[in-house]
């Protein structure tokens, strides 16, 4: 509700709409599984800072789209956007769904939409997935497709924010202690004269 969100200062509404998964049932369990699996996969590939930009951009886009269609919450749309963006990176990888059926990775968000529509016995069950595919494609286009065509990459985290949540260059190297000489490699063999001096005298 834009009036309550902006006019009355209830700025937590978009975030609660993104977190609410509905009543406890098998659909909620599957959504939690998808959120854990593909959210973790995306964060591992992009890093925490870029993944935070993805979530914030999706919440912003889904707020506008969900308002137009009258959707009170869009957590499933956010999960579908995550699956869609992951699937576009390796679209032809085979994925196993229910009952051992294998499909190509890029088909997964569409299969989930069909399954939810069949469970709801209405095309309205696919609406959250359609919204997620649309907003996910916007993110994928401006972060992957457009830069590959020579354009500027948008939706990137600021350097200050990235350095705050990530370690630059991976693991930080430990500082070398002062006053300690570090040698590497094998020790050089002693010369013959030095070896004779250091050798013990015969009795």
How would you sum up this structure, described in words?
- Helix content is 59%, strand content 3%.
- The model is unreliable at 171-188 (pLDDT under 50).
- The relative contact order is 0.10.
- Helix 6 runs antiparallel to helix 7 (127-148).
- By secondary structure, the chain is an all-alpha fold.
Topology diagram in text:
Layout: H1 2-7, H2 13-19, H3 26-46, H4 48-69, H5 75-89, E1 94-96, E2 102-104, H6 108-120, H7 127-148, H8 159-165, H9 192-198
Antiparallel strand pairs: 1-2
Which terms would index this structure?
mainly alpha; 203 residues; two-stranded antiparallel ribbon
Secondary-structure-based class equals mainly alpha
H/E order of the elements? HHHHHEEHHHH
Q: How many distinct helices?
A: 9
The main pleated sheet reads as: 2 strands, antiparallel
Widest sheet, order of strands: 1-2
Distance between the termini: 101 Å
> Count of DSSP E strands?
2
Helix percentage range: 55-70%
Indicate the proportion of strand residues. under 5%
Radius of gyration: 28 Å
Shape: globular
What is the average per-residue confidence, as pLDDT, rounded to a whole number?
80
List low-pLDDT spans: 171-188
